[in-house]
Design a protein that fits this description.
Strands 1-2-3-4-5-6-7 form a 7-stranded mixed β-sheet, covered by helices on one side. It is an alpha/beta fold and 460 residues long. It has 15 helices and 13 strands. It has helices spanning 2-25, 35-42, 87-100, 140-148, 152-161, 261-273, 290-316, 321-327, 332-335, 347-359, 374-385, 388-397, 403-416, 421-436, 441-457, and strands at residues 50-53, 58-62, 69-73, 78-81, 105-109, 131-135, 198-200, 204-209, 212-218, 227-231, 236-240, 278-281, 287-288. The protein folds into 2 domains: 48-359, Metallo-beta-lactamase domain (Metallo-beta-lactamase, Chain A, 4-Layer Sandwich); 372-457, Serine Threonine Protein Phosphatase 5, Tetratricopeptide repeat. A hairpin with a 2-residue loop joins strand 8 and strand 9. Residues 67-283 form the Metallo-beta-lactamase domain.
Length: 460
């Protein structure tokens, strides 16, 4: 450690020199979009603003805010399934629905407590007699964090959502168009802007309203308060966020309590049993045709169940999370399906979450019971490399071929000196390279956000 004390001024001087030369010595990112960027951009067609006629009684508005808003037409009124994130955008949907039918809203049903499905509710509260339904324990995920006084998930959520990025930096969120919450909604809270009037705590609750008979079915998965709604007359199933056209977000990188993957698969299995002809997901466009809907839901269920079972198998073999993400690979038939591509969630994140959900943070390797501090480990790695300057050179030389390694080496440099502007800028470049080749929308947004923050901190 004394070596670093003696050489600290020299290292800082050299690091600053490297910082000044980075813009000249490092390659500029190619302007041509990567295949991953093109594929993610093509997904935006799923979010084109449109009022979709699902069948004679069901309409779904897509592309207003970030989640679909659905209407079921009853005898003397309508029922709204989820209400969107923005009161302003939801008012536009209310006006669209009025062009289809002048009937008043009799009930609002929330599939779960995420704000992107609830904060537009005021647009549909026609009068004080409107029933507002949710499962008992509504808003569990947000309440769990709030009760602990936890707030960091909002900052991380802004990075995941790309809220700090400019429109040209942000393609979409994988299952929804790019959205900035300043427009009036809260993606992470459960403030519905209206009072919940009715809840249920059974597996199935049959709701009779507006001449309709709907089954509200408990379906824990993305949230503990999740439900799906079955309308048998038109064989329509409203899945909430337990289904959308992407690998499911079994673990959100903004952070959350463990999402029970096993129960998520079971909830999708329960959807399959209804044999729906129409499927309205929590995001993306509806799917029609009984054969296709059953096939999609069956593959969705089986892929989740496979990943869970294979992860548990590896855990029982004593594998660590890093070993598990190499061991657990989805069968090729699932990898080829567009609606199971990692646009939003990612299998690797789910594997790590399952391990932590069942065994906690300790990976079973006693070397990790009391590890070195980040700074001490960084100092020893730098010593192996021949000093901080040599570590920086290795990080810089790895940038094009292995930006992940560059990022990790920069983390060592920043652990030793968190004011190292050269390391900040180099890590930012690695983040941008990693982002452009990543299909996952939330991971991409997080990379770009961190890059932007590092560049700002370094003075760019």
């Amino acid at each position: 450690m004394s070596t670093y004390t003696k050489n600290s001024l020299s290292q800082i001087s050299k690091a600053l020199a490297i910082s000044l030369s980075l813009s000249l010595s490092l390659p500029v990112l190619a302007e041509t979009p990567s295949p991953a960027s093109k594929q993610l951009a093509a997904r935006s067609a799923e979010f084109n603003q449109e009022l979709i006629k699902v069948n004679e009684q069901v309409y779904t508005a897509v592309g207003y805010g970030v989640s679909p808003i659905s209407m079921i037409i009853g005898d003397d009124g309508i029922v709204i399934i989820d209400t969107g994130i923005s009161p302003e955008e939801s008012k536009k949907v209310r006006q669209l629905f009025a062009t289809i039918t002048p009937k008043p809203v009799k009930a609002i049903i929330f599939t779960h407590g995420h704000g992107d499905h609830t904060t537009g509710a005021i647009a549909f509260k026609d009068n004080d007699d409107v029933q507002v339904w949710a499962r008992e324990g509504f808003g569990h995920e947000g309440n769990f964090a709030n009760d602990a006084g936890l707030t960091i998930q909002r900052k991380r959520g802004a990075a995941q959502g790309g809220f700090l990025l400019s429109p040209d930096e942000r393609i979409n969120n994988g299952i929804a168009k790019a959205y900035w919450p300043s427009k009036g909604g809260d993606a992470f809270g459960a403030d519905t802007k209206v009072k919940i009037t009715n809840t249920f705590n059974t597996q199935i609750h049959v709701l009779k309203v507006a001449g309709l008979e709907l089954s509200l079915v408990a379906a824990p998965g993305e949230t503990d308060d999740e439900m799906f709604i079955w309308y048998p007359q038109t064989q329509t199933l409203f899945a909430g966020d337990n289904f959308y056209k992407s690998w499911p977000n079994l673990y959100p990188i903004r952070g959350a309590a463990y999402r029970d993957v096993r129960l998520w698969a079971k909830s999708v299995h329960n959807m399959v049993k209804y044999k729906p002809t129409y499927l309205v997901g929590g995001h993306t466009r509806p799917i029609s045709g009984q054969a296709e809907v059953i096939d999609v839901l069956t593959n969705y269920r089986d892929a989740i169940q496979f990943l869970f079972d294979k992860t548990i198998e590896g855990m029982n073999k004593g594998m660590t999370p890093n070993q598990l993400v190499e061991y657990v690979k989805l069968p090729e038939k699932f990898q080829k399906l567009d609606y199971l591509q990692p646009y939003y969630g990612h299998p690797e994140w789910a594997i790590r979450s399952i391990f932590n959900g069942y065994l906690g943070w300790y990976d079973g390797n006693p070397s990790n019971l009391f590890p070195l501090s980040d700074k001490e480990e960084a100092q020893k790695i730098a010593a192996l490399a021949g000093g901080a300057d040599e570590l920086m050179k290795q990080a810089q030389s790895a940038l094009n071929d292995n930006p992940q390694w560059t990022a990790q080496l920069c983390d060592y440099l920043l652990a030793m000196d968190d004011s190292n502007k050269a390391a900040m800028l180099l890590k930012a470049k690695s983040m941008r390279l990693l982002a452009k080749d990543l299909l996952n929308g939330t991971g991409r947004n997080y990379y770009f956000t961190v890059a932007k923050l590092l560049e700002k901190k370094a003075g760019l």
